[in-house]
Amino acid sequence: MTMQVVRLASETDFSGWREAARVLRARRVAPEAALWTVDGAGDLFDDAALEPGAEAFTVPRAFLQLAGEVIRHRSDERFALLYRLLWRLGREPGLLSRYADPDVRKAHVFAQGVAQAEQQMRAFTDFKPFAGADGHEVQVAWFEPAHRVTEAAARFFAQRFARRRFSLLTPDVCAHWDGGELSFAPGADPADAPREAGLEDFWRNLPAGPSIPQPIARPKSPRREPAPSPMARQSHTNSSDRLVRAAQRSSRDASFDGLAVMTLEEVHVGLQMCRRCGLYGGATQGVSGEGAGRARLMLEGEQPGDQEDLAGRPFVGPAGQMLDKALAEAGVPRDQAFVTNAVKHFKHELRGRKRIHQTPTTGEVAACRWWLDTERRIVRPQVIVAMGATAALAVFGRPLAIGRARQEALPLPDHAKGVVTYHPAYLLRQPDPDARTMAYVRFVGDLRFAWGLVA
Ligand code: URA
User: What architecture does CATH give domain 230-454?
Assistant: First the structure.
């Protein structure tokens, strides 16, 4: 057997891998005869005879998407694993949905690890302001991602930072955003990386890093420490088949409909890979519901806000504080309820540095309804409180006038009862103190009413 050596340009050279795999497969080179290496040169083969042009074949889009994720995993096995899958797909068309198959399973575990790593990088990268050579502020951060997700995370941060500049430094690659364009430079040596202080010197001494004379003194504001998300809490614990299957079902191509996600953990994992609508693109992470696993009362809001998006938990920001206060006054223990949202990703637009909430469209609510229904099926609440118009739309499937529908136990098809009330943020928005107090009193009354319906 003659070995075919493939030399990819970089560890994440997906287009190189695709081109090489296409040629190898067209020339019927078996997986055992292909040796995948990275040498930075970027000419794929020694053997000029391996030019494209033989047998034509197509691959499912789902495979290419899976491969795009897997290639960013740190395992040395990934190139060969993907080529083996590609090779086998020619003979076993339904292969990708056979989760018991070791190759398929491994690819999904890799993809899930990559998705988690990207989510963690989005949530936990801690940028600090420095003054650039031109006196303008640059945000600088050092991060060591579990997998090679820096380019994707940098694109996410570029969207979020808009015109503000940043440098994201990692051992793999350094990303620089000048407010209009992203550029990448070689990674920095982790041995030199600052652990606590020293980021400024480190950044200044990077070969490709711009020079920065002065850190910017900022008045100290309490830093929002992101609470460990359920994802972070569970990241090393559960790689069961069910989780892997759930993650796969949640991949970009899957519609989910008709498939059973059975646990709240699977809901959480699935949400991180959900592409049922476009909102995932601007959000840090999908925020699943939390609370008692078999709660009799479900409280549903609209969508995570800025703080919830960062923390990965529902109702932890100002609206959450208002909700907590009202729940306490109504005598409803939050930990005996299940708190969730109609839409699981934060929809917003950037205005300067601020992420301004935007109301989700009917289509986005409908797309996310699958997750809400799944949470309902798992938690099986007796009473669901829809807080605000978006939540009411999601629960009842049609718009309701909140003011008129309050204080009623509305029947739902799964034998639960629905109650509608104001959204806590609506109370916060009332400019007139009397109107605010009135709305608050009604809100507390509605929560008490709902709790009274619980058997
Ligand atoms: N508003 C909501 O509707 N949900 C949250 O989780 C936070 C704010």
Answer: 3-Layer(aba) Sandwich (3.40)
